[in-house]
Every structure is written in C-alpha cells, then in structure tokens.
Specification:
alpha+beta, Immunoglobulin-like, six-stranded antiparallel sheet, 505 residues, four-stranded antiparallel sheet
C-alpha cells in the first residue's frame, strides 16, 4: 500500500421506487447465486457486493450479499468462514432496528447471505447529500442504534464496524443496522479484519475514522467498542464533520489515538452542551471512561430527543398517559356526581320544614334506595296542619291525612310527595342541562396519543371514540416514530365524524 487510505466504493442509491414483484421476476437475470436470481446491483463495499434478487421459491424480492475476492483458496476459505459468521450472528437476532437475514449458504460463486430488501439510503449517503439532522433528530437516530446494539450485546454479538455506511435509513429516517460482517460471537475471534487473514489487510471497509483505539492497537474488544464507534457517528451528526481527519491510515490512526476533537457545541452553537458531552463520553479513548454499555448510552440520549418528531412511547410515557387520561376522566366523574345530586334534589323538603326522624323508615329498602330524608317518613300531621291540609288543592284523601294512619302508610307516602312539594321548590339551574355533543370515531394506525384543543385525551388504541361538544375542535395525534398529525374537526350532534390517519404512509 502507498500509505493512503482507500475510500469505500460508492453504494448505489436505494431510494427509488422498486418495481412490482412480477416485473422484477421478469427482468433479465445477471447470474444465479443458490436459488436466487440476481437482477441488479444495489451497492458494493470492501466486504462484498449487494444485489437485488428474486426468490422464486417464496416469490419475493430479497437483497443478496456476496463475497468476490481474487485470492488463493486457503485465504478464500477464511473469508467464507468470516462471511458465514455474519450470517450466524445476525440470523439469531430479531430486532426492529437490525436487518433481517433470511438465508445463507455456499455456491459455485462463493458464500452468500439473503436478507430483507430495504428501501431508503444509508446514513453515509444522507450526509453526503447534505442532510443535517437537528440535534434532537441525531439523538433519536443514535439512540435507536444503541438500542439495537444493546440487544445484540446481550446475545453475545459485538458489531465492531459501526459507521454511517452500516446505518440504513428507512421510512421516516428510521435506522436499521447493517453488516455484521466482522462481528464476533462472545469468546470468539478478535474483532479485527486483519486477525482473520492477511488478505484482508487494508479492507476495514473504509472505516478507520470510526474504529476504537483498542481495535487499532489490538486490545480487548467488548460492547464498549461499539459504544465508541457510535459516539463518533453522533459527533459527526452534531458537529457536521468527522471527529478525526487524515488522508492516510497513519494520519487517521494518529488522530484517533492522540488528537482531542473540539466539542460539538463549540463547532455548532445550536447543539446543547449536555448532548455534546454525551457524545464526548461515548468516544472516550479509555473504555473505562465511556458508557458502560450501549443500553446506558441509549438512556443518556433519551432526554435529548425531540418529542414532536422522535420520542417513542416508553414505560414512563405510558404512565404519564395514564395520568393524563385520569385528568380527563375526573371532570367527567365530577359532572356525573353533580347530575346525581341534582336528581335527588327534588326529594328534599323545603328549608323551613321540620325534620323529625322516624325509626320505622330506617329499615325501609325503598327509603334507602331513593335516598329519601327522614322528614318524608313522618306523619302528615307533623308536616302540614290539619286545616291547611283540608284547604290545600292537592290534599290527600282522608285515609292518608289521618294522624292515626297505620305504620305501613308512611311507606307509600314518599312517591306522591314530590308532586306536593315541587311547586315550592325553585326550578333547576339551566346549567344542569348538558350541551349538545357529538362523536368522533378514531381510526389511527398503528397507535397515537390524542390531544383535543391542546389537552391530552388518551391513547388510541384502546381509545376508540371521543365525545365532544358540538362545534370545531383541533385534534392532534402523536406517535413517537413520526411527525405529529393535526387537523380541525367539525363535530355535529347528529352525525358521527371519523378521523383516519396512518403514520408512515
């Protein structure tokens, strides 16, 4: 080598719309690898080429990665073992931010891996095109990668080659970790390409900028190695430039081992100092000074995510949602209690009416069920004078008006009592009549936090409908992986309204 570090081969853009499955199957085939028909090249790098291919057995499109090196057979066997190690490492991982491996094997053209066909572009391509995430977006993206690495580390797999080219962006810039090609399984080989075979010297996939010091010096490898590389990626997203510069491997190695890059917030004033400190801690030269794990790194990034377009629901968010739903339900419960109190008001005696308890009424089920005050159970002669009862328009028949009425008579008196006392009572307040309301049906996929006029209303699902006063309302739906959706809804008391939205469409 001449001392200069070769740039990786450019990957082909992947953000174009894929052809329909039947059209892809009919396209000319470049060659066959195993049972897969390679249709077009998607990208190439230091470890192999990637093709879009057709799987005739399952009638689906896949991405097939192959190794193509012109080396001697013994060295080729070492490369095959390394490549199949990738397949074994990734095939045992099932995580939404790690690429899914379908199949792997050997063919006349060498070893291959068939994996899911992703749509989008990798982070290196995004940066090269001029894309610059906001600090909160960078925190979100790196946190998702840290979650994926924590999952892999818990299963004994260290990636060892985290860099922008191995972070693929799909959908709304949702990251997926690619290429565990030089990953090692716990207690396995060292996580360096040169340790596998001298033929791989200089083929560190163009990533010396992101290699941890212990990788360059042949030290001990563990999950903190991936933390370091991901910290360098975060620094680049925040600062807008690589942490370590150089035109050759010795220059880059010297920078990684000896140069302290300026803090990201010193280069970009919009970057919060706390977030810049998180990146600096992750990329500390001494592994003992870094975050102890990828999970700890992810936890440190959580406060810096932008809620509007990044933060996904967590246990704490779910608890907060429960509290918000309780705050919504409390006014409704209070209104129900107020209506209940208004409904029993008609059974109360006027304020100037004597109230003499009657022991017999305390055991009467009807009195307990209707919450009738003891005053209604008293003999008529104690409530209304005899002459007044005789002259009253609604006077009771003589049998009921007699003071000598049998004990059973008071039980029957509470039912007609409201008719006699109602004229003396004031009319119910107009505010007791609830306003006209309408129904908003929710059809949100996959889920969302609902806000009505800026106030939280619950989580859908399980929330399926909203009952709102007739009129216009601003409804906002939030999902942590996507930008919020907001719309104005006109609620009609006679006609239900359906609010439909699918995030990511």
């Amino acid at each position: 080598m001449d001392g200069r570090w070769p740039e990786p081969a450019e990957a082909l853009p992947l953000n174009s719309e894929p052809p329909p499955a039947d059209q892809l199957s009919a396209e000319p085939t470049l060659q066959h690898i195993g049972r897969y028909a390679l249709k077009r090249k998607l990208g190439e790098g230091g470890l192999g080429n990637v093709h879009e291919a057709w799987d005739p057995l399952l009638s689906r499109t896949v991405a097939v990665k192959t190794l193509q090196f012109d080396v001697d057979p013994p060295e080729r066997l070492a490369l095959d073992r390394l490549f199949l190690n990738e397949a074994r490492a990734v095939a045992g991982l099932n995580h939404p931010h790690i690429v899914t491996v379908h199949d792997a094997g050997l063919s006349a053209h060498g070893v291959y891996i068939a994996m899911e066909r992703l749509r989008g572009r990798d982070l290196r391509q995004a940066i090269a095109s001029g894309w610059r995430p906001r600090p909160g977006q960078a925190a979100y993206l790196v946190r998702r990668v840290a979650d994926a690495l924590a999952y892999a580390h818990a299963r004994g797999v260290v990636h060892c080659d985290i860099k922008p080219a191995n972070i693929f962006l799909t959908g709304k810039d949702k990251p997926t970790v690619l290429d565990f090609g030089i990953a090692r399984i716990a207690h396995g080989a060292q996580c360096t390409l040169s340790a596998a075979q001298p033929a791989l010297e200089g083929l560190v996939a163009g990533s010396p900028h992101y290699l941890a010091p212990e990788q360059l010096q042949g030290g001990t490898i563990d999950g903190r190695t991936d933390v370091y590389s991901l910290g360098v990626v975060l620094y680049e997203l925040l600062a807008g430039r690589k942490a370590f510069e150089g035109d050759s491997l010795p220059q880059i190695t010297n920078a990684v081992l000896h140069v302290n890059p300026a803090p990201a917030d010193a280069l970009q004033p919009a970057v919060p100092a706390g977030l810049a400190a998180v990146a600096a801690k992750a990329m500390a030269r001494d592994p003992a000074e870094r975050f102890a794990s990828a999970a700890e790194f992810a936890l440190a990034l959580r406060p810096w995510q932008e809620r509007a377009g990044a933060e996904e629901p967590s246990t704490a968010a779910a608890d907060a949602g429960q509290r918000r739903r309780l705050l919504v339900l409390l006014p409704m419960l209070g209104a129900a209690m107020a209506l209940g109190a208004a409904s029993t008001w008609w059974w109360r005696a006027p304020a100037d009416t004597p109230s003499t308890p009657v022991t017999a009424m305390a055991t009467t089920p009807t009195a307990a069920a209707t919450v009738v005050p003891p005053v209604d159970a008293a003999p008529t002669s104690e409530l209304v004078p005899t002459d007044a009862a005789a002259s009253a328009p609604d006077a009771l028949p003589p049998a009921e008006a007699s003071a000598e009425a049998p004990p059973a008579a008071p039980v029957a008196k509470p039912r007609p009592r409201p008719a006699r006392t109602k004229p003396a009572a004031p009319a119910p307040a107009p505010t007791a009549v609830p306003p006209a309301t309408g129904t908003v049906r929710l059809a949100i996929s996959p889920w969302g936090e609902i806000e009505v006029n800026g106030q939280p209303a619950g989580l859908t699902p399980p929330l399926a409908t909203l009952t709102l006063p007739a009129g216009s309302h601003r409804i906002t739906v939030r999902n942590g992986d996507f930008p919020p959706y907001s719309t104005q809804v006109d609620v009609d008391a006679d006609q239900p309204v359906t609010l439909r939205h699918r995030f990511g469409s």
